[in-house]
Amino acid sequence: xxxxxxxxxxxxxxxxxxxxxxxxxxxxxxxxxxxxxxxxxxxxxxxxxxxxxxxxxxxxxxxxxxxxxxxxxxxxxxxxxxxxxxxxxxxxxxxxxxxxxxxxxxxxxxxxxxxxxxxxxxxxxxxxxxxxxxxxxxxxxxxxxxxxxxxxxxxxxxxxxxxxxxxxxxxxxxxxxxxxxxxxxxxxxxxxxxxxxxxxxxxxxxxxxxxxxxxxxxxxxxxxxxxxxxxxxxxxxxxxxxxxxxxxxxxxxxxxxxxxxxxxxxxxx
Length: 269
Prior knowledge:
Layout: E1 3-17, E2 23-37, E3 41-46, H1 52-59, E4 67-72, E5 75-76, H2 82-88, E6 92-95, H3 99-102, H4 109-119, H5 125-138, H6 155-167, E7 173-177, H7 185-202, E8 205-210, H8 213-219, E9 222-227, E10 230-236, H9 237-242, H10 247-254
Parallel strand pairs: 3-8, 3-9, 6-7, 7-8
Antiparallel strand pairs: 1-2, 1-4, 4-5, 9-10
Helix pairs in contact: 4-5, 4-6, 5-6
């Protein structure tokens, strides 16, 4: 399988001031390696503080790793300068847990989705509006709601807006950082189905970051488990769920009462 993203031996360390004035080094990521095939989904599962979001920021070119290599679309992005990174960032988009914090509440749905195109200087005004309307349709927002402000939408609808906005620049990789965890179960299922539909239609590649093994099993082709900044287990979704090797994996699976073979069978590869 052609790999869109290859992460090799990534480490991320932060310097933190100690109360007595001495500096203390904190390791957020240690020797992290994995890859994601084009058009597939890797779920990155772990407890809070395991390093998932730090890794997402490194992949999205918003943080520089201390060491290691990230290859995206056959180009090593860890060696690029800031000007070169500005060309890469539109190809890797993030969708966060709380869309209300990332969406300007005063903007209409149309303005929110077309704004990235305006910032990047792409298309003229009419073309931007046409593309924004098409994206709203793709994520299930009715055209009659295109001029409504973000604050007028429900949580699930705001997450649909966030997905449409992320897709406006036609990214190759979408990083979904706990993007479903703030939604109730029925809305989670709707957005998960939307993501799979969009992936099939547009050939998108997903890094799905979550603490929820149930949803990871539903969405992902492969699962990587993180603990204390390391990837401790990785494999096909059905193998990780069916025969977990690590204690942290077994603990997280046991904590998910919704995870049953009948209700959340892993996706076919």
